[in-house]
Amino acid sequence: MTIKSEKAYAKKIFDLLKKEYPEVKCVLIHKNPFQLLVSTILSAQCTDERVNIVTKDLYKKYKKPEDFLKVPIRELEKDIYSTGFYHNKAKNIKKCCEMLVNKYNGKVPSDFEALNELPGVGRKTASVVAGNGFGIPAIAVDTHVKRLSNLLGFVKSNDPEKIEFKLKELLFEEDWINSSHYLATHGRNICIANRPKCLQCVLGNLCPSFSLS
Which residue in the list 89, 142, 146, 175 is annotated as catalytic? Predict the structure, then answer.
């Protein structure tokens, strides 16, 4: 398949997803880029729903980076315990907030590379914050995006960076941010891991992984 035909195929897929999910948005509840940054760190190996439950109270207690630095790490671990991997997450949040305070005057940088260099922040988290916090074109590759990108035949790889760059090659820049939301929403609702609802899928006529079983 040529790159031209790949782009045409991707456009058909995402045109259908746009119609199916016209109001997609970032599922993580946040009021500013800092809250989104912390929520995305917490979302590793955890559902967005659980993160939103935890942060409902968390952001009443911690309003800015300095607040996270003031409390003992054991207290922070207790506050985020139910998101899982709380030892590492608390440590990363503390280190991240320390850099925000010392290097960026307590503000979250909008530059992608600067975001990517923050402790506990990889390309996925940086892409989530850049795109949904600052409106900067970016594609966040989570487990749903990785799985569906392979099932739909966009890639044959589990490397998040390769998937990110391939999707960027196939899609218009203005569609980058929401592309992650479309795939994630479809992955949660229809193309569920190990039990996909292929017969209910709007992509059935195009998907190379479609199954009648």
Answer: 142
Respond yes or no: is residue 159 known to be catalytic.
no
pLDDT at residue number 87: 97
Pick the CATH number of 33-134 from 3.30.1340.30, 3.40.50.1950, 1.10.340.30, 3.40.50.150: 1.10.340.30
pTM: 0.93
Contacts of residue 103, defined as CB under 8 A and 6 or more positions apart, other chains included, come to none
- The question of whether 156 is a catalytic residue gets the answer no
Distances (CA, A) of 28 to 42, 98, 125, 133: 10, 23, 12, 11
Q: Is the pLDDT score of 37 beyond 70? A: yes
Decide if pLDDT at 125 tops 70: yes
Task: List pLDDT tens digits, range 52-91.
Answer: 999 999 999 999 999 999 999 999 999 999 999 999 999 9
Catalytic residue among 89, 124, 146, 166: 124
* Fold exhibited by the domain 3-23+139-200: Endonuclease Iii, domain 2 (1.10.1670)
Give the domain ranges of the chain. 3-23+139-200, 33-134
pLDDT in tens, 133-147: 999 999 999 999 999
Is residue 155 exposed (0-12), middle (13-18) or buried (19+ Cβ within 10 Å)? middle
